[in-house]
Amino acid sequence: MDEFLDFLQWPAMAVSLYAAYLIGSQRAGKRVFGFWMFILSNLLWIVWGVHDEAWALIALQAALMAMNIRGIWKNDSHDQAHDQAGAADAPAASEGRRSAGRR
């Protein structure tokens, strides 16, 4: 069992990297999935941290998990707002942002 828990840091790292890649997406759905992957990596790191008695790492992962939950909530609310605004309004809104930046 100790060997498995020692090995757990590698999948935790790989999931963290994959999650970081996903949250860089312009699509909210991919970002939300990335935050879920970060939560998975937080859990993996916590399990590894308990095994290794890395208490600061466990505290960090718990705090990061709270931020990842916030990221899911913020991106889900963004999706709902976008759905309510309608796809027809999206090009006009983005054009307004672009022209505002030119001033």
How would you summarize the topology of this molecule?
Layout lengths: L1 H6 L1 H15 L4 H25 L2 H31 L3 H13 L2
Helix pairs in contact: 2-3, 3-4
Describe what you observe in this structure:
The protein is an all-alpha fold. The protein is 87% helix and 0% strand. It has five helices and no strands. It has helices at residues 2-7, 9-23, 28-52, 55-85, 89-101. Helix 2 packs antiparallel against helix 3 and helix 3 packs antiparallel against helix 4 (55-85). It is elongated and about 50 Å long. The N and C termini lie far apart (62 Å). The mean pLDDT is 86.
Global structural class = mainly alpha
General form? elongated
Topology order in helix (H) and strand (E) letters: HHHHH
Low-confidence stretches: none
Radius of gyration: 18 Å
Helix content: over 70%
β-strand number:
0
Strand content: under 5%
Most strands sheet: none
N-C termini distance: 62 Å
State the helix count: 5
Mean pLDDT equals: 86
List keywords for this structure.
5 helices, mainly alpha, 87% helix, 103 residues
Question: Concise description?
Answer:
This protein is mainly α and about 100 residues long.
